[in-house]
Write a structure and sequence with these properties.
By secondary structure, the chain is α+β, with helices and mostly antiparallel strands. The protein contains 8 helices and 17 strands. It has 2 domains: 81 residues, Acid Proteases (Cathepsin D, subunit A, domain 1), CATH 2.40.70; 251 residues, Reverse transcriptase/Diguanylate cyclase domain (Alpha-Beta Plaits, 2-Layer Sandwich), CATH 3.30.70.270. The longest helix is centred in the C-terminal third of the chain and has 18 residues. InterPro entries: DNA/RNA_pol_sf, Peptidase_aspartic_dom_sf, Retrovirus_Pol_polyprotein, Rev_trsase/Diguanyl_cyclase, RT_dom.
């Protein structure tokens, strides 16, 4: 390091390369240190104090690279060569030194959830870009429908969901709506309720079709060659992270037994919503290799853990900048086999997912 011989222990469980203060002071040329913005913790979860981050000239075998290193306070610190140096130095760890994938998966997940805490905080995101417009025709005549009766037993669930959506800023009450679409309550297996709206009889009648193409699943899966490790990210209430303009919010108004509510976020059931969302997420993740968004699911493919971590960081950085949030419980990090769009994906290639196989024999039709 900077023309000084140093001994570092290769540790695939460490995301970053770190050296002790004494090792740093022994360098012939000490780099300038900048404030370290990365939170480091030991295996017990205790925070590790750092002096800062600097760049050193690394010579390893026939490789010469300038790479970042974090300097740890104290002299009795083991110098660790972490995963961020593996790819630049062409290091591959295998056999007895390889960390079990389940452990490494947990390390990567914990690290990313700490570094991008606001992306995983469980709240509903608000996209920081311009609001979505539905581009309604200028001469459109608004349609107002009457409220539909719902089973009395569902009313408390509907009211709870309306309260939750108001607290999230998705809806707000309105007294004299120009548009009104009846709701269609859907009870999920968890006994929670999803409030859909029957936009087929209102705004969808007048919307102009969007021309943006939805990705072809087979074309996406054909681009997986070389993938050995995988991750999958899931956006929380994906459409509802996108705000809409006043005209669209008015057109999406729902009518319930508790009155009318103006919907300020993009709604599931709007005929153009899939194309609008897919185009936005494609644009926001454009240029990151190995990243394949399909609506609210994002597959990330890489050849090794270091490359995967780098690509995940880039995705999460953009989401943080955009104000978008992920559902932590549905995200999967650093696995060698993953299910995506009805297929099991691994380094061996594609196989039908087990659920899909069983449904081929037992399905009774759409539900």
């Amino acid at each position: 390091l900077n023309s000084t011989a140093c001994c570092l222990e290769v540790d695939s469980g460490a995301a970053y390369t770190v050296i002790s203060a004494s090792c740093f002071n022994s360098l012939r040329r000490k780099p300038n240190l900048e404030r370290n913005t990365i939170i480091l913790r030991d295996y017990q979860g205790n925070m590790i104090e750092t002096l800062g981050t600097g760049y050193v000239r690394v010579e390893y075998k026939n490789v010469h690279k300038t790479l970042p290193v974090i300097v740890i306070k104290g002299t009795r610190v083991v110098n660790l060569l972490g995963r961020n140096w593996f790819e630049p130095l062409n290091i591959n760890v295998s056999g007895i030194n390889q960390v079990h994938n389940a452990v490494l998966n947990n390390v990567i997940q914990t690290e990313l959830e700490s570094e991008f805490a606001e992306v995983f905080d469980g709240t509903l995101g608000v996209f920081r870009g311009p609001p979505i417009s539905l581009n309604l025709p200028r001469d459109v005549n608004p349609i107002v429908c009457k409220v539909r009766k719902v089973p009395f037993a569902l009313r408390p669930l509907i009211e709870d969901e309306l309260d939750r959506l108001q607290q999230q800023g998705v809806i707000e009450p309105v007294t004299h709506p120009r548009w009104a679409t009846p709701i269609v309550p859907v009870v999920k297996a968890s006994n929670e309720i999803r409030l859909c709206a029957d936009y087929r009889i209102t705004v969808n009648k007048v919307l102009r079709p969007e021309t943006y193409p939805i990705p072809n699943v087979q074309d996406m899966l054909a681009n997986l060659a070389g993938g050995r490790v995988f991750a999958k990210l899931d956006l929380t209430q994906a459409y509802q992270q996108l705000t809409v303009d006043d005209e669209a919010a008015e057109a999406q108004t729902i009518i319930t037994h508790k009155g009318a509510f103006r919907v300020k976020r993009l709604q599931f059931g709007i005929s153009n919503a899939p194309q609008i969302f897919q185009q936005l997420i494609d644009q926001r993740l454009q240029g990151i290799p190995g990243v394949m968004p399909y609506f609210d699911d994002i597959l990330v493919v890489a050849k090794d853990e270091a490359q995967l971590l780098g690509r995940l960081r880039e995705v999460l950085t953009r989401f943080r900048e955009d104000g978008l949030k992920l559902k932590k419980a549905k995200c999967v990090f650093n696995v060698h086999e993953i299910e995506f769009l009805g297929h099991k994906i691994s380094s061996r290639g594609l196989e039908p997912a087990e659920e899909k196989n069983s449904s081929d024999h037992s399905s009774t039709g759409p539900k």
